[in-house]
């Protein structure tokens, strides 16, 4: 079966075609970064309107690149949540309309499940069970994954997520949008040892996270620099390096603790922060003594994309977790949706 997937939860419009037997056939993605840079962050109304402009051309592109006709599609999948309500409605309504017009089943997919399973699009593909570190823009969670739809929450952030800590710290330093990647690039030029920043909950003994205190510490350093002549380029680079080092140390330490507590030897890292090169290097080094292995999605699939949504739907179909009813086309979206609810 070939599944056409739509992702529109925030500021990326993604469309992809995945075959349950052959895997990913084609995907296309449009990012709204350039549009939102003027405002320093995502403007929900503008995001929704841009999804409307992009989704049909991207669908045509995917079908053409995959060599498919509309008659080849066996089911349609879409992100039903969590995310921005208006943005979610664009992808959901287009997917449901496509499915209704072709008398196909439509499959509602949890955005974080898409991220969670996206490393399985890479080679080598991780086997179940594994520990998953979900680090997308608004979420930081550790999950035990025993199979598709079999998820156990081990720990999560109590306030700011890691992605938010990157973005908010970057904004405090006067870096552009999106802040996380800008901070990571600047950190390459800095000395992380210059600033002693906190590692919140590093030694808490549990698997929960907290990054709001780190953001406050960054704000304190920025204000101190401004009172002493301003935040010059070397200071900004050093502070960026120290901020990144603090976030990465906490993420890596908690991930290793999760592996030890569960006795598992496979760690899957998914979400936009999973593209961070320091995090990848730190985890690779920390896993060697445990004889464990880390799995990451391809860099092109770390951000939101349609491939992960179509793939999650395909895995749910193969696991028998989806009722493929071509007549069920009533739908809603869920801007707030706990991943544990679908397990």
Automatic annotation (TrEMBL):
GO CC aspect terms: cytoplasm
Top EC class, one word: transferase
Organism field: Achromobacter pulmonis
Cellular compartment(s): Cytoplasm
Pfam families, A to Z: TsaD (PF00814)
Cofactor(s) required for function per UniProt: Fe(2+)
NCBIfam families cross-referenced by the UniProt entry: gcp_kae1 (TIGR00329), T6A_TsaD_YgjD (TIGR03723)
Key words, A-Z: Acyltransferase, Cytoplasm, Iron, Metal-binding, Transferase, tRNA processing
GO biological process, one term: tRNA threonylcarbamoyladenosine modification
InterPro entries reported in the protein's UniProt record: ATPase_NBD, Gcp-like_dom, KAE1/TsaD, TsaD
Domain Gcp-like residues, every copy: 24-311
Protein family per UniProt: Belongs to the KAE1 / TsaD family.
EC number(s) from the headed UniProt entry: 2.3.1.234
Binding residue positions for Fe cation: 111, 115, 304
Catalytic function, reaction form: L-threonylcarbamoyladenylate + adenosine(37) in tRNA = N(6)-L-threonylcarbamoyladenosine(37) in tRNA + AMP + H(+)
Record text on cofactor binding: Binds 1 Fe(2+) ion per subunit.
Residues involved in substrate binding: 134-138, 167, 180, 276
SUPFAM superfamilies per UniProt: Actin-like ATPase domain
Protein name: tRNA N6-adenosine threonylcarbamoyltransferase
GO-annotated molecular function: iron ion binding; tRNA N(6)-L-threonylcarbamoyladenine synthase activity
The protein's role, per its UniProt record: Required for the formation of a threonylcarbamoyl group on adenosine at position 37 (t(6)A37) in tRNAs that read codons beginning with adenine. Is involved in the transfer of the threonylcarbamoyl moiety of threonylcarbamoyl-AMP (TC-AMP) to the N6 group of A37, together with TsaE and TsaB. TsaD likely plays a direct catalytic role in this reaction.
């Amino acid at each position: 079966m070939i599944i056409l997937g739509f992702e529109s939860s925030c500021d990326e419009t993604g469309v992809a075609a995945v075959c349950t037997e052959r895997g990913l056939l084609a995907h296309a993605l449009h990012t709204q970064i350039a549009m939102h840079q003027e405002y320093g962050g995502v403007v929900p109304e503008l995001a929704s309107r841009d999804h409307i402009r992009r989704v049909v051309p991207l669908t045509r592109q995917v079908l053409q690149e995959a060599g498919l006709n509309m008659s080849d599609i066996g089911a349609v999948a879409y992100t039903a949540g969590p995310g921005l309500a208006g943005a979610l409605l664009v992808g959901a309504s287009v997917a449901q309309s496509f499915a209704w017009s072709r008398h196909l089943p439509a499959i509602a997919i949890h955005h974080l499940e898409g991220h969670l399973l996206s490393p399985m699009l890479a080679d080598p593909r991780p086997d179940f069970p594994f520990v998953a570190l979900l680090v997308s823009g608004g979420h930081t969670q550790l999950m035990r994954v025993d199979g598709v739809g079999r998820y156990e929450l081990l720990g999560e952030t109590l306030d700011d997520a890691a992605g938010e800590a990157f973005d908010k710290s970057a904004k405090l330093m006067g870096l552009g949008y999106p802040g996380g990647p800008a901070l990571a690039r600047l950190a390459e030029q800095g000395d992380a040892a210059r600033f002693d920043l906190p590692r919140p909950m590093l030694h808490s003994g549990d698997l929960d996270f907290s990054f709001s205190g780190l953001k406050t510490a960054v704000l304190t350093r920025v204000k101190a620099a401004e009172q002493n002549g301003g935040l010059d380029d070397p200071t900004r680079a050093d502070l960026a390096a120290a901020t990144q080092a603090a976030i990465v140390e906490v993420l890596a330490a908690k991930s290793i603790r999760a592996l030890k507590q569960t006795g598992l030897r496979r760690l899957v890292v998914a979400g936009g922060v999973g593209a961070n090169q320091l995090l990848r290097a730190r985890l690779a080094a920390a896993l060697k003594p445990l004889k464990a292995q880390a799995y990451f999605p391809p860099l092109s699939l770390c951000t939101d994309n349609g491939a992960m949504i179509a793939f999650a739907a395909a895995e749910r179909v193969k696991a028998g977790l989806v009722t493929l009813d071509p007549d069920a086309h009533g739908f809603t979206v869920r801007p707030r949706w706990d991943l544990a609810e679908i397990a």
